[in-house]
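BUG: 3D viewer hangs when loading the predicted structure for this chain

Environment: internal workstation, default settings.
Expected: structure renders.
Actual: progress bar stalls at 90%.

Input used:
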Amino acid sequence: MVGPFRLTKALLGELTASAREGHRPVVLNISSDAAINPYPGWGAYGASKAALHHLTRIWNEELAAEGGRFMSLDPGDMDTPMHAVAVPDADPTTLKRPETAARELADAVAAVVALHANG
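Structure tokens produced before the viewer hung:
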């Protein structure tokens, strides 16, 4: 939570300047279903994801007039080493490939940029 907060805070001036120049900056924070669903043993992870998700929504409201957009998206369960450690019994063939999730996230950002450009 602290890292994304500090990084975004440090970039806010540049983001708003970019928006004033007619660009459509978007900040994307990666969330998780653990931000909403409580999982035993995942306390710090879930709480930090919930806090980041909510902070993203707050910043989107506070800075919408400046022209920037903030998004918090959950890419879903992916076939990654982190997931394998967290859920060792999961069948990797049922999990999303990271490159698929990356494309979906990029498409979501592009859709927000297009929407922001048109309205």
